[in-house]
Amino acid sequence: MKLKILYNLTSYSFKYRLKLNHKQSYLSMIFSNFYSTNTDELKEYNIPLENIRNFCIIAHIDHGKSTLADRLLEITGAIKINSGMQVLDKLQVEKERGITVKAQTVSLKYMLNNKEYQLNLIDTPGHVDFSSEVHRSLAACQGVLLVVDANDGVQAQTVANYYLAHGNKLKIIPIINKIDLKNANPEKVEQQLSTIFGINGDEIIKISAKHGTYVDEVLKAVVERIPKPTCVRDKSLKVLIFDSWYDSYRGAVLLVYIKDGIISTGDRITSCNTGKSYEVKLLLLLRPEEEKVNKIYAGQVGCIICKMKYDEASIGDTLYLYGNPVEPLPGFNTTKPMVYAGVYPVDSSQYHSLKNAMDKLTLNDNAVSIINESSPALGQGWRLGFLGLLHMEVFSQRLEQEFDTPSIFTTPGVVYKAKIFGKKNITHYKSDEVYFCNPSHIPNISIVKEMYEPTVLGTIITPGDYYQSILHFCLERRGIEKSNKNIDESRIILQFILPLNEIITDFHDELKRMTSGYASFDYEDYGYQLSDIAKMEILLNGRPVEELSTIVNMSKSVSKAKKICAKLLNVIPRQQFLISIQARIGSKILARENLPALRKDVTAHLYGGDVTRRIKLLQNQAQGKKKMRMIGNIALPRKVFVDLLKT
């Protein structure tokens, strides 16, 4: 009997091991196919260099870039006709907001005069907060499609994008879109393009991207006007990384432009930045679906998967064949953040998961800068730099949607500068210029010589009827008018020097509201200007609370103080004693609010008798509350800081 049981157990164990081994071999087969390097199964798409065109679409927001990209994909057979709106807007945040926030690449096959061409198209964002995406995309292109709305005409970001492409010496093909609209006026827009940019009317293509009208003329113009890439396939491999993203199974996926040479599956490549080497596991072309290829040739745009870790990938890096070092490509200038905000986990236990999520997301958005920071109120966190308020909102939304990591974002601020004097103080600060964005880091006023705040050069394009309203609005925001110029008989272009702190929150929304949505706004860095700024402290019963301090301009200090005190009145929990809420700069009190005490009815048990008993009880209660106010410790819960600091 024992022998029989032992035999059955052994047999069962053997069958289980067979089943387990079968599963393991099946999984290993899946992953080996995932990174398959069998060159017999992979396609090789070798097209002559003179038949390659690299271009991107640039325009102001909502002028029809993504719709035009859809029509180009349909005409070239990359997608089915009417397969869906904005195919290249793949992120959930893009679909919800109806805007493009990430540049997307696709390789198209196009036949013209019995010749096959490869058109590498990049659809770029139109909002100023994502201008770094446009800048990187232009590095892989030889030409651009400049799209202008036939109804709205030239807008602020249209001007910025034109000069960005012109500065990169790219061929510009002007396109007037939405000619099918009822109020479209393409002749007027053509005159604007001529006045502002000096564009000849014969160069302009008028289309309706929504209905596909004359879109085929755009493809012909791309082939005929945009030059071939300036690449050499016989030289040593030189690859530029101009975008990347994180994949849970593949690691870092690199979107690259092959400047010189040929890259093949199985090659060993080295990074100029880190010096580390990797084996090329997979090469892809985006059509827009992934297509595995054996080789990518100079002049083409594609993806490299080489099991690179996400913290090793760097946009702007140059890759070369192992053992054949090359001179690194220029890469990209580091983007300068304009807006800073504190980011903290909702719970301290989520610190590491939020850190990993941000590292992976910044792989896809390298315009975000990260600095470690701690707050006595909110704990360990980071100070993140963004290109604008919309950039910050999209980053926060992507963190939650793509990585399921909710977080607390504090009110955005800017980086100020202070000049100090005294050799001893300079030694302490290592320089006579101190930069700070946190009120706790502001130097002592006794050693400060001058204070500076960042400014921007804002460009506003608006109908002339709103000139006076916009002028008054900008002057309220401490702006200085620099220039104004008529574009045509009804529209003007204005330029103001504005403090960055005045435009990062509600400036754009207010501008749109007062002009019924007709005005457009764009800005660029204008350096630091002398300013009268100071640290404003918040006092609770005469005791300063460092975590509630803020940096303000003296001209706006009183209104800001009243606003903060009024908000604290609603978020601080009431105590058994009166709490005075004050805002001060130096020794001057700017605003005050009183949070009344919780009152206990100490006379409730009285049912009669002399009135002096009631008076005595109330006097004793008042004395007790006075004593409690003198020695009482106001412990603010974390929710108070979150309610006050979060956007």
TrEMBL record:
Q: Does the keyword Hydrolase apply?
A: yes
Question: Which Enzyme Commission number(s) are listed?
Answer: 3.6.5.n1
Instruction: Give the Tr-type G domain ranges.
Output: 50-230
**Signal peptide coordinates:** none
List the keywords (alphabetical): GTP-binding, Hydrolase, Membrane, Mitochondrion, Mitochondrion inner membrane, Nucleotide-binding, Protein biosynthesis
What's the protein's topology in the membrane?
Peripheral membrane protein
Subcellular localization, as worded in the UniProt entry: Mitochondrion inner membrane
What are the BP-aspect GO terms?
positive regulation of translation; translation
Q: A single GO CC term, please?
A: mitochondrial matrix
- Per UniProt, where does GTP bind? 59-66, 123-127, 177-180
Q: Which NCBIfam families match?
A: lepA, small_GTP
What's its job? Answer: Promotes mitochondrial protein synthesis. May act as a fidelity factor of the translation reaction, by catalyzing a one-codon backward translocation of tRNAs on improperly translocated ribosomes. Binds to mitochondrial ribosomes in a GTP-dependent manner.
Protein name as annotated = Translation factor GUF1 homolog, mitochondrial
Q: Which organism is it from?
A: Ceratosolen solmsi marchali
